[in-house]
Amino acid sequence: MPKIVLDAADRRILAALRADGRLSNARLAELVGLSPTPVWNRVRRLEEQGVITGYAARLDQKALGLADTVFIEITLDRHDAALVREMGEALSRMREVLEVFMVSGDYDYLARVAVDGTAGYEVFLRERLYSLPGVRSCRSIFTLRTLKREGSPDPS
């Protein structure tokens, strides 16, 4: 896929939508200094090119009873293609797993998980994660405080 070239107007549009994905087209046009029709065309082009991949609401973990975030380093006991695929799919389906990455290094996956305290984490570990075939070991890192949370890179 060729690299997509963004001009200054595209970057202003992306920055505004990154800050508030619910902006009306008229308000977005006002913020970026263009008329509504060119803004609408640019947004559609950015969506079609895959630069904008979707729009979502940010939910408060605490309000949902999942106030604690844990990063889990997961190591598999083997690396055959079927297990790697199944593990990624299983982790992706778990409600508590917010993000999961296949990584290089000392472990195979890094998962960001939302739980209800250490008791909730124990339940997640014992009933969900350890029940998956192929898990050799896990290492947990509990967050103390979130200092920055962004869903997308800065387009500038």
If you had to describe this structure to a student in words, what would you say it looks like?
This protein is an alpha+beta fold. The protein has two domains: 8-48, Arc Repressor Mutant, subunit A (Orthogonal Bundle), CATH 1.10.10.10; 68-142, Alpha-Beta Plaits, CATH 3.30.70. Helix content is 38%, strand content 19%. The chain has helices spanning 8-19, 25-32, 36-48, 81-93, 117-129; strands spanning 68-76, 97-102, 109-115, 135-142. The chain is elongated and about 55 Å long. The protein starts with 7 loop residues before the first helix and ends in a 14-residue tail after the last strand. The mean pLDDT is 94.
CATH architecture of the largest domain: 2-Layer Sandwich
Which descriptor suits the 3D outline?
elongated
Helical/strand content category: alpha+beta
Largest sheet: 4 strands, antiparallel
Work out the number of β strands: 4
Sheet-strand content, in percent, reads 15-25%
In DSSP terms, counting alpha (H) and pi (I) runs of 4 or more, how many helices? 5
Poorly predicted sequence stretches spanning 5 or more consecutive residues = none
Distance between the termini: 21 Å
Helix content: 25-40%
- The CATH H-level superfamily of the largest domain is Lrp/AsnC effector binding domain/regulation of amino acid metabolism (RAM) domain
Overall average residue pLDDT? 94
Under CATH, the topology of the largest domain can be stated as Alpha-Beta Plaits
Rg result: 20 Å
Listing every helix as H and every strand as E from the N terminus to the C terminus, the arrangement reads HHHEHEEHE
Q: What is the CATH level 1 assignment of the largest domain?
A: Alpha Beta
Count of separate structural domains:
2
Main sheet: which strands, in order across?
A: 2-3-1-4
